[in-house]
Write a structure and sequence with these properties.
By secondary structure, this protein is an all-alpha fold. It has five helices and no strands. α4 runs antiparallel to α5. The chain is globular. The two termini are about 30 Å apart. Belongs to the fluoride channel Fluc/FEX (TC 1.A.43) family. It is found in: Cell membrane.
Length: about 120
């Protein structure tokens, strides 16, 4: 039990720091109204989690990389906050596009990751 907490904590540390680095890098490259950093992080995280599940890895690795790392890397709360901010700024079209594309591409890439992982 203690091992699981430690493994998830290590993964969470790595995932949160990776998210910070990726977010800052993308935000320097983009000045769009569309929250591209969170979108890329969540879609790529969906793909990677699908890949891990498809690969049928051991529970310890799933805790480290799936629950810990990707749990901290992806961010549903930021996704919701950014949608609320877009609506507050009267960017309804951008908000709807962000909402729909995040779910559609998240599911698509999770499926693709799972299919690719099943090959391995």
């Amino acid at each position: 039990m203690l091992f699981n907490f430690i493994v998830v904590g290590i993964g969470g540390f790595l995932g949160a720091n990776a998210r910070l680095i990726v977010t800052n890098w993308i935000k320097k490259k983009s000045n769009m109204k569309f929250p591209v950093a969170t979108f890329i992080i969540n879609v790529s995280g969906s793909f990677l989690l699908g890949l891990l599940i498809g690969m049928n890895i051991s529970e310890a690795y799933l805790l480290l990389f799936g629950t810990g790392c990707l749990g901290a890397f992806t961010t549903f709360s930021t996704f919701q906050l950014e949608n609320k901010q877009l609506l507050t700024e009267k960017q309804k079209t951008v908000s709807i596009c962000y909402f729909l594309s995040s779910y559609a591409f998240g599911l698509l890439f999770a499926f693709l990751g799972f299919q690719l992982g099943a090959i391995f």
